[in-house]
Amino acid sequence: MSSQRRVIGIRKKLAMVLAIVFILLMWQIAAWSLPSFLMPGVPSVAARLWEEVQSSNFRLALFGSLYRLGMGYGSALVLGIGFGLVGAVLFFFREVLKSAIVILQSIPSIAWVPLFLILMGFGNLPIVVVVAIAAFFPAALSVMNATESVQQVHVSAARVMGASRLSMLRRVYLPAVMPELITGAQLAFGNAWRALISAEMLVGFGKGLGRTLAYSGETADMVGVMANILTIAILAALIDQVILENLKHRLLKYQFV
After folding, report:
1. Neighbour-count burial of 90, counting CB atoms closer than 10 A to its CB (0-12 exposed, 13-18 middle, 19+ buried)
2. What is the pTM (predicted TM-score) of this model?
């Protein structure tokens, strides 16, 4: 019986291409079935997207969204990994943090927007904080859950050799939790991206892909709506598959041999 459990190489790329073709085909079938003002076809949306890409407004919106994503997502990873690793050596702290996350992660990220708007005012900060909250939960949980499965023999050996808590975090726990950490980072990105677009749509401040999408909807510009949705989907796929997947392959080479 074959022990292969993952699709790699050319077959994985083929699977991605087939998924894209299937989505575009379903979209085009829906466009043929509905009036064009309700569901524009793929060619007209692609033409609009090509025009938008060449405009300065698009570049400003793209930069604004990526800036907020980078600030919020980066902060969440640093805090999530840090708190998760601290929980590996402070067991009571880990249980308190896990309980808090279980309670707070049930609140949709978008629900925090009105609160932070009141506290912080209009600007990038409330959106960045919402993105950070959305990404923090899966990042911290993945690391904390992974630390619980670290083999006790490795921990005991490190203690016998006189390792400090900081050394144990760096030399025992961090290498052991790396696979779950990368997976948690990918889950955190999905949460962060959705929170970013939703917050930009709701806040209606400044330049951003979410704000551009909301404006297209407000003006009943369905071609613009679909072009913005397509942009959001393409960017998310590129970040996840090109950046995060390549990072996973570099850090976890032994799993892809």
Report:
1. middle
2. 0.80
